[in-house]
Write a structure and sequence with these properties.
Elements lengths: L9 E7 L10 H15 L3 E8 L3 E8 L3 H23 L11 E5 L2 H12 L1 H4 L31 H7 L3 H8 L37 H24 L5 E6 L4 E9 L4 E14 L2 H7 L5 E13 L6 E12 L5 E13 L5 H16 L5 H12 L1 E2 L4 E2 L3 E8 L7 H13 L1 H12 L6 H20 L2 H8 L4 H4 L20 H10 L6
Antiparallel strand pairs: 1-3, 1-4, 2-3, 5-6, 6-7, 7-8, 8-9, 9-10, 10-13, 11-12
Helix pairs in contact: 1-2, 7-11, 7-12, 9-12
């Protein structure tokens, strides 16, 4: 059964000549096929990578039109080439095997490995000794200037961000691919699943890594660690992964969990975006003609049980460049905070104790300072109450006489690594507690306050919207079920009122 083609997703498209016959007898045929790709696929798909061999081809694409239009575009491409080929060779009948093969790509590591495989295909088939010498792959296109238009122009920045940069892209391609199975199954029709054993993800091997490379690699690994643990805690739902790209530069990897045993909705997202700083943000930072790079991990988890608190965390890094590409500013930011619906003081103490322990390993004043900033930042001024019971919030963490950027990296990653310890024990203690519909209604009313903060006050949401960020990823923090009840007031002396009293005045939990 052929895999469904879906808009917004990545696919490996491949096929061969019928009975493995030659479909590209010479370079002129290959050049003609590439011209047809540009003619028929432009505006229907984005080309990520390609390779043409004498009897088969590989395309890695992102579908940017609906299924019907995309499939018709591929059909037009193959029919146009077959018609021209048959006329050239004075033959009739089918040229390609029936139905082009397609495999949906849902994993970023697999996508990177597949790009390597496609580019090294001529060497693997012993057509050339060194794959760089082969003319009809997309490999060389990644080394051309941005002013040179190629089939992969639209996807170039995103692909290079997967490998961190052009230098690392080149380095990874020099890796040994021994043991890498034929992904397309073109030699063995029984091969249905790729075998990636023995192929290491070599991204990040460049020495010494820049700070942005180092932190970008860290958030990739942290996302894997956090999502794996949360899936275990939930016991039912799994994270759905969505790889996306930003037209102006960069992209990200969104992972969303929904309708689980524990988590009603949640997201653990990473992104790395770059390009010209939008005018609105240039005015905000007081700069002109600046470029930027920003990467980070952001997560929000909304549990089903109102006895389990919502949690938010974010760890990010930012660089700004002058017109010559030199770094003119750089900083870290981030934090983590807890938003309960029913107050268990031992949970608040546990969460803040973990935060304080992480801070104390670096500077004794950090916890007090960043706890206070968290209380001030996550505050719904229009409601005169905190969003939750706080945690840590730090921003614009720049090099000083006492803290280098390496010191800040160590601190931010310490906090990031402490997240699961701060939150998971609370979830496991509360997830099976009984609750009533009244308590569920209260949870949804309080979720409304959470939405209000994110849409009215949150700087991260503002930055994402003003830099043409991906809307689905930016707004994944919003809960699925929310209530706004006119002038709702909790019953005097109730557990609900106890929470509101605490939110009106920050508490020193440790």
């Amino acid at each position: 059964m052929l895999e469904k083609i879906e808009k917004g997703h990545y696919y490996h498209i491949f096929n061969r000549g019928i009975n493995s016959s030659v479909i590209f007898p010479n370079e002129s045929n290959m050049s003609y096929f590439l011209n047809l790709i540009e003619k028929h696929l432009t505006d229907k798909v984005d080309i990520i990578a390609f390779c043409l061999m004498s009897n088969h081809f590989h395309l890695i694409v992102k579908i940017i039109e609906d299924e019907t239009m995309a499939i018709q575009a591929f059909s037009n491409l193959f029919n146009a080439y077959a018609k021209a080929f048959n006329k050239q060779q004075n033959r009739t009948g089918s040229l390609f095997e029936k139905h082009f093969k397609r495999k949906k790509i849902t994993d970023e590591t697999y996508l990177k490995n597949l790009i390597l495989y496609v580019h090294k295909n001529p060497q693997n088939h012993k057509v050339v000794k060194h794959f760089e010498a082969y003319k009809f792959t997309s490999y060389k296109g990644y080394f051309l200037g941005n002013d040179v238009r190629t089939l992969i122009s639209k996807s170039k920045s995103y692909v290079l961000s997967l490998f961190e940069d052009l230098e690392n892209f080149e380095l990874v391609h020099q890796s040994d691919l021994q043991g890498f199975e034929n992904l397309a199954g073109l030699e063995n029709s029984n091969t249905t699943k790729p075998n990636l054993q023995g192929l290491k993800d070599l991204a990040g091997l460049k020495e010494p890594p820049t700070m942005k490379d180092k932190f970008f690699k860290y958030i990739h690994e942290l996302q894997d660690t956090i999502t794996s643990k949360l899936e275990t805690v939930d016991g039912k739902a799994l994270f759905k992964e969505d790889i996306w790209e930003r037209p102006e530069g960069g992209g990200g990897r969104t992972r969303v969990i929904e309708n689980g045993n524990v988590f009603e909705k949640g997201g653990v997202n990473i992104s790395g975006v770059h390009g010209k700083l939008p005018d609105s943000m240039q005015k905000y930072f007081g700069v002109e003609d600046a470029d930027f790079f920003a990467c980070g991990l952001s997560l929000v988890l909304h549990p089903k049980n109102p006895m389990v608190p919502t949690v938010h965390a974010n760890w990010r890094y930012f660089e700004m460049y002058d017109k010559n590409g030199a770094i003119v500013d750089q900083w870290f930011g981030g934090g983590q905070d807890l938003t309960p619906y029913y107050l268990f003081e031992e949970d608040a103490i546990h969460f803040h104790t973990v935060c304080k322990t992480a801070c104390d390993k670096h500077q004794p004043e950090f916890y007090k300072t960043y706890k206070k900033r968290c209380d001030e930042y996550f505050y719904n001024a229009h409601r005169n109450e905190g969003r939750g019971i706080g945690g840590l919030f730090f921003d614009y963490c720049k090099a000083t006489e006492t803290m280098t950027m390496e010191n800040w990296y160590d601190f931010v990653t310490e906090v990031g690594n402490s997240f699961l310890e701060s939150y998971v024990p609370i979830v496991e203690n509360r997830k099976d507690l009984p609750f009533s519909k009244t308590q569920r209604d209260w949870q949804e009313i309080r979720r409304g306050r959470y939405v209000e903060f994110n849409l009215v006050h949150d700087k991260g949401t503002l930055f994402g919207l003003k830099t043409n960020g991906r809307i689905e990823s930016i707004l994944m923090s919003l809960p699925p079920h929310v209530q706004w009840v006119y002038d709702h007031q909790p019953e005097p002396g109730s557990e609900e009122e106890k929470l509101i009293d605490v939110l009106k005045k920050p508490v020193d939990w440790v």
